[in-house]
Amino acid sequence: MSDFRLEVFYTVAKRLSFTKAAAELFITQPAVTKHIRELEDQYKAKLFERKGNHIALTQAGKLLLHHAERVFELYRNVEFEINSLSKRKEGLLRIGASTTIAQYIVAPLLAKFRGKYPDVQLSLITGNTEQVEKALLAKEIEIGIIEGYSKNPEISYHEFLKDELVLVCSSKHPLANRNSLRPDELKTISFIVREQGSGTLEVIDHALKEAGINHAELKVEIRLGNTESIKSYLLNSSAMAFVSVHAIIDEVKRGELKIIDVENLIIERSFYLINLQGRITGLADLFFHFVNHKS
Fold first, then answer.
1. How far is CA 2 from the centre of its chain?
2. Which of 93, 177, 211, 230 has minimal Cβ neighbours within 10 Å of its Cβ?
């Protein structure tokens, strides 16, 4: 980093906390304050203002944050391109993945990528589809891998993997001896569903609507934020859930969970690689080529 003060400012601006920035950068809080004051003296403008116990960016701070993001993106591309001259692939690639993908899909992919490019450092954040897209738009990550497709005009979407969502229950469920259910029977079942903003929930709701069932007609027992929590709840309840087939292979093989078909209902979706609209550069471009070659 050519200017550590700018990195300090960027970290405070993203966390909106001097304390969190100090912990993340492994420096003291007074040191953070000193760097921010030096920047404010340099630009002769306040960068943060206090609002009760919180801080917020001033107009000057927002402007500096915008340019800092562009500067750091340029640094990463310069590092990548200079390393490429000597055939080295080095640098930091920041990736965001929605929860299901992070748990069951992306880990082996990242391991293989690191195996091929051991000098590339990877950073992975997780959240639902909405959160990953927000992180991309805020330039906190270079690439996202998501379950949904919100068609945000600022984002470019690239399909790379198919998935199917299946109806699952505990093998001890009263209906576990059934091989299939009629769509109208879904209205009588207690369901575990994902939280609002989840790409999985969006896909399920759309498919059910096509089958003549509105989400509001389902008996929602509980909303949970990730598939692991849903599986654990399923094993200890008489509820059902639609989950990715990738997520329940082991439990089905062990006889703990049972997949039940729903007549005339197939819920398929695609996983997408996403990036900001425009030319993909640096390590993000390298990762895209790697994934496309593997898929």
1. 29
2. 177
